[in-house]
UniProtKB/TrEMBL annotation:
Protein name (database record): Porin
Domain of life of the source: Bacteria
């Protein structure tokens, strides 16, 4: 009460603080007895054999904005979700200063997602998306993670519409179940053009990072020693599997077309790098939705393809066949042959202001490998053979305030 009274006394001296938020209360269910499935690559738990779980897409976010003047603002956003090692502990997603120093130019300094993909700035805001979540065939290749960055934006009329250019540079750290990824530098540019019901987008980025994982480093170092069971690991791993100073690049394309009650969305990304720990891959999806009053049925299809070549690891002559089998398994794992297709259909009901209820069914199909152990949003244990198909059923109540 005393704090409230003090705030009231100074209310006329300070600009008003603006509080907003978003959240999702969601459940999901995978139907397979062999593989576990999760809504995202950073969810620590999976649904197996028809188990209902409530941790995947469930999230609560709060955002505090202070408009210090007509041209200067400060933004702080906290988010709590079941994100790998955090277990719903809140973390800072945004913490930046924004300065509109001219009608066409804007500067943003601090923690923020880099504006590379369509859903970069609202990936966890379920209400902002027609579907339950952004399509994983694209977003599993490059998530919208918070970055300590400097972003410069320019906008101007062009070709009967509006043109926006974003330039950004920054760095961030991504925590893993064991170790972390330190992104030493990340640079990007995105060009967006919008006119009435059509929006086009092109983005490019390059990045450099280290994998800080002592267990991985010991395993690779042991295979590269002169007396190891692998005859060519020293050369192959040094050439194509460095865990430090990894360099990568991204290309993204997107289209949004909204004629009348329809909404057509398409997005494509291509990733490359100098290490199997940033494997060459491409992903795409197209989604069609139709708004009918408060109801929006929608459907989508997408694929992810990995283009990384096998390393060709070879055991030394005279070693048991089991050694070569073990090296072949390691080779397949590093190659990431996890191509897949996703078909989904869903229904969104905007039953109240700022609130939407969604029901979504997905069919995930492996297009190449069905036996190599894997993690991420598909969990397959060693020694298991999978038929390559899994169904994911999701329901969510999304809200903004």
């Amino acid at each position: 009460m005393l704090c409230g009274a003090g705030a009231a006394v100074h209310a006329q001296d300070l600009p008003p603080l603006q509080l907003a938020g978003y959240g999702s209360v969601a459940v999901y269910r995978g139907d397979d007895a062999v593989v576990g499935v999760a809504p995202g690559t950073r969810n620590p738990r999976h649904s197996l054999n028809g188990e209902w779980r409530a941790d995947g897409d469930s999230v609560l976010g709060l955002q505090l904005r202070w408009p210090a003047s007509d041209t200067l603002e400060a933004v702080w956003q906290l988010q709590a979700s079941d994100e790998l090692v955090r277990n719903f502990r809140p973390s800072t997603q945004w913490l930046y200063l924004g300065w509109q120093f001219s009608p066409s130019w804007r500067l943003r300094l601090g923690r923020q997602p880099l504006p590379l993909l369509l859903a970069s700035e609202n990936a966890k805001v379920g209400y902002a998306h027609t579907a339950v979540r952004p399509m994983p065939t694209v977003y599993s290749l490059n998530g919208a993670y918070p970055t300590d960055a400097l972003t410069l934006s320019w906008t101007a009329p062009a070709w009967g519409g509006n043109l926006l250019l974003d330039l950004a540079t920054g760095r961030n750290t991504l925590t893993l179940t064991r170790g972390r990824i330190d992104v030493k530098s990340s640079h990007m540019a995105a060009l967006r053009w919008q006119r009435e019901h059509l929006a086009l987008r092109l983005g490019v980025a390059d990045f450099r990072f280290n994998i800080e994982d002592s267990g991985l480093a010991r395993e690779l170092d042991a295979l590269s020693q002169p007396g190891s069971v692998c005859g060519n690991c020293a050369a192959k791993l040094s050439d194509r599997a460095p865990a430090r100073d990894i360099q990568g690049a991204l290309l993204t394309l997107a289209l949004v077309w909204t004629p009348g009650p329809y909404e057509f969305t398409g997005e494509f990304t291509r990733r490359g790098g100098n290490s199997v720990f940033s494997p060459e891959a491409s992903g795409w999806y197209v989604q069609l939705a139709r708004r009918q009053g408060d109801w929006t049925p929608y459907g989508a299809v997408g694929e992810t393809r990995f283009h990384e070549r096998a390393l060709g690891l070879q055991a030394r002559p005279g070693t048991p066949p089991a050694v070569q089998n073990s090296l072949d398994l390691l080779d397949r794992s590093l190659q990431s042959p996890f191509d897949r297709r996703i078909l989904l259909a869903g229904l969104r009901w905007d039953f109240a202001e700022g609130m939407a209820l969604k029901l979504q069914a997905e069919r995930w199909s492996a297009l190449r490998d069905r036996s190599t152990p894997r993690g991420g949003d598909i969990s397959l244990a060693p020694g298991q053979n999978w038929d390559g198909r899994v169904q994911l059923l999701s329901a969510s109540l999304d809200f903004v305030f």
